[in-house]
Amino acid sequence: MANDVLVFIEVRGGQIKRPSLEALSEGSRTAKALGGKLIALAIGAGFSGQMGSIAAPGLEKILAADDEKVALYQPEIYAALLADAVRKTGCGIVFLSATAMGKDLGPRAAAKLEAGLAADCTHLDVEAGKLKAKRPVYSGKAIATVVFEGSPIFVSLRPNVFRMEEVPAGSAPVEKLEIPGDPAALRARTVSLEASEGAELDVSEASIVVSGGRAMKGPENFALIRDLAKALGGAMGASRAAVDAGWIDHQYQVGQTGKVVSPNLYVAIGISGAIQHLAGMSSSKVIVAINKDPEAPIFKLADYGIVGDLYEILPRLSEEVRKLKGQS
Amino acid sequence: MKIGVCIKQVPDTETKVKVAADGRSLDAAGVTFVISPYDEYALEEALRIKEKQTGEVVVFSVGDERTGTSLRTALAMGADRAVHLKDAAFEGSDAVGLSRILAAALKPEAFDLILMGKQAVGTDRGQIGPRVAELLGLPHVSVVTHLEVGEGSFRAHREIEGAHEIVEGATPALVTAQKGLNEPRYASLKGILAAKKKEMKVLGAADLGIDPATVGHAGARTRWEKLELPPARTAGKMLKDMEPAAAAHELVRLLREEAKVI
Fold first, then answer.
1. Which of A176, A320, A321, B198 has the fewest C-beta atoms lying within 10 Å of its C-beta?
2. Contact residues, chain B, for A190 at CB < 8 Å
3. Residue numbers in B near A111 (CB within 8 A)
């Protein structure tokens, strides 16, 4: 029981989110290492047709609340469903992805069960039959190894970090859950979801991020950043300097008071590399820096650097990427 | 409107992290401690609501002696009184313990609104808001970039990936602040002088009716076994003194053929 793993599957706008499937893959590995069962819990609306994508070796069953009443994220109802599922299945370990929803839901449900939670973990280990989690702290300037007391325990996993197993469509039995309570009667209720201005891919979800900094000089030049991000199929980001100057909205900020990201490729353009920015992106797999100052601190950790004028390089870079993608 | 604000004292964001001799905590020598930036947005929002609607802003913090300086700063910014939650039994508290301490202190005050940052920079857990709300039986909204508070009701924008959720509800409620909510003020000289005369209460486990076994090291459900620095990155290939077109071409080739990321 204490070794059984429950994985929360996030649904947004009727779509099962990929980070949840990464968490399911890791949940499967953990359950196997501990000799426990694996169960999934999915909450949302309109995802019944995609149930086959909730698949992982050893998955025993899927608890599903597919209901228009929970089409939008309602923390109180979701937390009640999750805590109930933990109680009824007796699972000792709960995995969520560290998305906006997972970061909000995890602690609320954990509090109902007086359970400990390790947030935004980047590595899990099973040692002597016990789970240990590594998580970046001080925005990635250090890594803490977290050990747990008691049961159940909650773990949220950083998106884009854990390997997702490609498995054939699953056929685990589905058990339907009733929605406790009426969302209309909630004391606080999510009433709508509005795409942010531009409605672009978010830095925290993208596997490629292209960020612009102080050298962008003004809001209009972020068109160059957006263009390269688009060519690469990635998201646009920004440094704090660019955000604080008012050139671009805070939602794009990467760094200690912005978003901490771990994409496959991070391209830092006209960003010198203040410690707060480096903290937010230094766990990226590959880092590219473009800066006209060869002494910029960002070059000390970049895998590839171009010393030069970004206004000359960026348009050519976007063109090269388009050429490459067109040919392949 | 009666508003409670929870703040945490954290290392300044410019801190270069060093691991202490015990191998599992931050070496605090030479570190400057400040109010966690997200908590400043929470405090600023509370002060603005009070200025518009009248009322009281009470600021809370769990921590040792040094935490008193951050509570004084909050008073200097304009909070009316402060409550310092200080007890040897609180040391080593994880999110479970911290939320128990804060909930015990907040409960008897019956606030209309409780505000705090979406997370403390440092531990970066982001758990205290939803946990305290659950313990107090209140609804919560986290990561809020816009907040309107009316007579017994509120409307909030909550930031999510590439979008925002609009949440409506009734007070009392708990809200956690995200950057973008406002621009926090600095403490004025007048504020600093006024802060000296404001009430700062110190409460311990016994005052709050907390069993010491449920907080601190004793009550912790998670513990840092080790703190280490991330593997150092080293500089890679530099493309210098190249024509822009040639540099762009070479970079794309390297990303494709060598790094295999595009």
1. A176
2. 158, 165-167
3. 96, 99, 130-131, 134-135
Question: Does the CB of A132 have a partner CB in chain B at under 8 Å?
Answer: yes
Is there a contact between A141 and B19 (Cβ–Cβ < 8 Å)?
Answer: no
ipTM of predicted assembly, 2 dp: 0.95
A89, containing H or E segment = helix A75-89
Round to whole Å and give the CA distance between A190 and A101. Answer: 12
In the predicted structure, residue A199 carries a pLDDT above the cut 70? no
Name the burial class of residue B31, with classes exposed (0-12), middle (13-18) and buried (19+) by CB atoms within 10 angstroms of its CB. middle
The number of beta carbons lying within 10 Å of the beta carbon of residue A208 is 23
**Tokens 């909050």 appear where?**
B74
Cα–Cα distance, B4 to B109 (Å, whole number): 8
Between B99, B244, B262, which is nearest A232 by CB? B262
Q: Find the residue in B nearest to A297 (Cα).
A: B235
Specify whether the CB–CB gap between B142 and A99 falls below 8 A.
Answer: no
Q: What is the pLDDT along chain B (262 residues), one digit of tens a residue?
A: 999 999 999 999 888 999 999 999 999 999 999 999 999 999 999 999 999 999 999 999 999 999 999 999 999 999 999 999 999 999 999 999 999 999 999 999 999 999 999 999 989 999 999 999 999 999 999 999 999 999 999 999 999 998 999 999 999 999 999 999 999 999 999 999 999 999 999 999 999 999 999 999 999 999 999 999 998 888 899 999 999 999 999 999 999 999 999 9
A28: pLDDT strictly greater than 80: yes
Contacts of A46 (CB under 8 A, 6+ apart): A11, A14, A66, A71
Residue with tokens 């977290």: A146
pLDDT digits (tens, 9 = 90+) for B205-222: 999 999 999 999 999 999
Phi, psi of A199 (to 5 degrees): 50, 45
Structure tokens that stand for B53 in this block: 């609607």
As a whole number, the mean pLDDT across chain A is 94
What's the burial of B92, exposed, middle or buried (CB within 10 Å: 0-12/13-18/19+)? middle
Task: Determine whether the interchain pair A143/B227 forms a contact, defined as Cβ–Cβ distance below 8 Å.
Answer: yes
Cβ A261 vs Cβ A281: under 8 Å: yes
Q: Do B131 and A186 touch (CB under 8 A)?
A: no
Residues 6+ apart with CB under 8 A from A6: A27, A39, A40, A41, A85, A86, A89, A91, A93, A94, A95
Q: What is the pLDDT of residues B17-41, one digit of tens each?
A: 999 999 999 999 999 999 999 999 9
What pTM, to 2 d.p., does this model score? 0.92
DSSP annotation of A221 reads G
Contact A253 B122 (CB under 8 A): no
Q: Does A297 touch chain B (CB under 8 A)?
A: no
